[in-house]
Amino acid sequence: MSRLDEARSLISLLFAATVVIIAFAFFITFMPKKGDVIRYDCSISEISPDYPIEVKERCRKLRAEKL
User: Fold this and answer.
1) DSSP one-letter code for 47
2) 0.90 cut: is pTM over it?
3) Largest Cα–Cα distance of the chain, in whole Å?
4) Where are the domains of the chain?
5) Would 32 disulfide with which of 4, 36, 39, 64, CB 3.0-4.6 Å?
6) If you count DSSP H runs as helices and E runs as strands, how many of each does the chain have, helices first?
């Protein structure tokens, strides 16, 4: 292996490590903390597969109270 190949391998490894570290930092920074409040839009709760069942039930209850 020539010096140029070794340098390219080292640069690739450092770049990959940098990407992983930055992704991890974003993941840790933007994840909701235990005390954070998560707000759901009840207008799409019935059609969204991402909403937990408890949220859908609470949205139904809130809509029933409004009527």
Assistant:
1) T
2) no
3) 76
4) 1-31, 33-67
5) 36
6) 2, 0
